[in-house]
Amino acid sequence: MWNETFKKMQMTVNKDFSSSGKDLQHNLNMWNETFKKMQMTVNKDKTKVMVLGKEEEHINIEIDGQILEQVNTFKYLGVQIDSQGRGNIEVEARIDQTVKLYHSLNRSFLNQREISKKTKMSVYKSVYRPTLTFGRLK
């Protein structure tokens, strides 16, 4: 039963999850009812709504009578996305994170003359580069 139900739900997502608030509400209701049948629940506090590519459109989407929070940015699997489809928000977040890291290490570590250039380069390669590249330390 699970595989068949999941395939139907996946087809809905692949086709076009929602081109309007009404479609989104219908599809979300379908998912929610299917999950209930399988004794699963949708976490209403973690579930967010974001309208993509439109100017400041507000829609009310709900699960079991609770209106979901609508957001303009959302972090999913470590990647920050925004409602206008711009990717630079993630790059800016990584740069900000790296600058904060630099300032915290500079005061206590990097500005000391006793520390060799080799050690400082090692810190750069193991701390700064992964933060810029992946948004976090490895």
Automatic annotation (TrEMBL):
What name does this protein carry? Reverse transcriptase domain-containing protein
Q: Which organism is it from?
A: Popillia japonica
